[in-house]
Amino acid sequence: MRTHQKPPADWPHPRQPLRAWRGHEASETSVAREPGGDRLADALATFDAVRPRLFGIAYRMLGSVADAEDLVQDVWIRWQNCDRDEVREPAAFLATTATRLAINALTSARARRETYIGPWLPEPVDTGANPELAAEHDEAIELAVLFLMEKLTPMERAAYVLREAFGYPYDRIAEIIDASEQNARQLVSRARKHLADERRAPVEASGQRAFLEAFLVAAQSGDLATLETLLADNIVSYSDGGGIAQAARIALVGRDRVVKFVLAVSEWFWEGIDVRWVEANDRSALLLSAFGEPFALFTVSASEDGIDRLFWMMNPVKLGAVLPVDA
């Protein structure tokens, strides 16, 4: 984790949910008492207004809540220290800064992920508690999409996120990523094709929840026939333990292998496990707890062919953004 200049004392802690950032009367009053406080308070108000979008861009680019918050703090520091009188469009300036930092950060993050133990999955986030993450369009937020976007280049990912999640016009995307408008269009087109090649059209949120509920019942009871009906032929099961929690270090591919695995653990895995329905990345998920302690988040993605991916988030470091307040 990088070390940053500390924000104002009353600035909310970066691990707080986005809803904690609404309204900063006390914070602005405190800042105003400092030297140059009026200008800093104005800077804070401007930044606060666009912070959810900055976090939304950073999270979709990096797939990590912690890294996204770290990046947003970096943008705030740059906003404090720049000549703000020269900035005609603060929101555009901040979005551009966040996107370009995210492109660089993603390149570094991918180098680190090459040595990650087992499959690397995006860090889930509670979109129910943080509706700002939904952006203009419900795109590039599902775990399945974030996972597939790992195969895009940083520039493709940036262009895709700006276009599909936030609805930026191509000329503005070109300005943000420092490319021609034609290149911006090509980047988005390639990203769309890559993602379309990797998955069938997904079911709606209600359909995904129905698949997840049916899978849970079948897995808990060891119902072979139902599992075979629910799972697509080419299903893949991913488990992210990060070398911390016990988890499969190789993805399981194909219906037969996944069914055998689910049936093999059904007799003991679910015993004594508390299952809590939560919302993660705009889709239904199951928060699993043992002895009162959450230890995993489980969810699925599905198409008309059935459930095509299982996601088991076992890494405790990545569960913080989906834990309920009372967990």
TrEMBL record:
The keyword Transcription regulation applies. Residues 1-35 are annotated as: Disordered. Residues 47-110 form the RNA polymerase sigma-70 region domain. It comes from the Bacteria. InterPro entries: ECF_Sigma-70_Domain, NTF2-like_dom_sf, RNA_pol_sigma-70_dom, RNA_pol_sigma-70_ECF, RNA_pol_sigma70_r2, RNA_pol_sigma70_r4_t2, RNA_pol_sigma_r2, RNA_pol_sigma_r3/r4-like. Residues 144-195 form the RNA polymerase sigma factor 70 region 4 type domain. Keywords: Sigma factor, Transcription, Transcription regulation. This is RNA polymerase sigma-70 factor.
